[in-house]
């Protein structure tokens, strides 16, 4: 089956491609975070991670030509996102330091269920039987992975 070049280019720039990149990047993050958390204190690991992340993001901005664009609302929510990210990161490293990565990372992966529920209850996203079943199966899968 031949695929038109514009279709391929469009799909290569689509949200699903970036979701897959994110999936693999976060998988790498959890693997390397586990090793780091076993050899350094959690806050130190988080500090190193964020110090390395900043030039990577700035490099992306340079390569992509993206300009810094700030609004009061964006800075406020970006700040809250940064606080949540930092709390989650340090908490993950503490969990990895004290427990099994298969349990800690799997349970922490439930964040998307929380985000989906908030989206449906607070942000006005549609609630469908399919979405609810998907969330239920996701929770069941994560629970089964975490207890095995």
Automatic annotation (TrEMBL):
Q: Which part of the chain is the EamA domain?
A: 16-145
Annotated InterPro entries: EamA_dom (IPR000620), EmrE-like (IPR037185)
So which residues are the signal peptide here? none
SUPFAM superfamilies in UniProt: Multidrug resistance efflux transporter EmrE (SSF103481)
Q: Where are the transmembrane segments?
A: 16-36, 43-63, 75-96, 103-123, 129-147
Question: Heme: is it a keyword of this entry?
Answer: no
Keywords recorded for this protein, A-Z? Membrane, Transmembrane, Transmembrane helix
Listed GO cellular component terms? membrane
Q: What is the official name of this protein in its record?
A: Uncharacterized membrane protein
* Biological source species: Halogranum amylolyticum
Top-down, what is the taxonomic lineage of the species of origin?
A: Archaea, Methanobacteriati, Methanobacteriota, Stenosarchaea group, Halobacteria
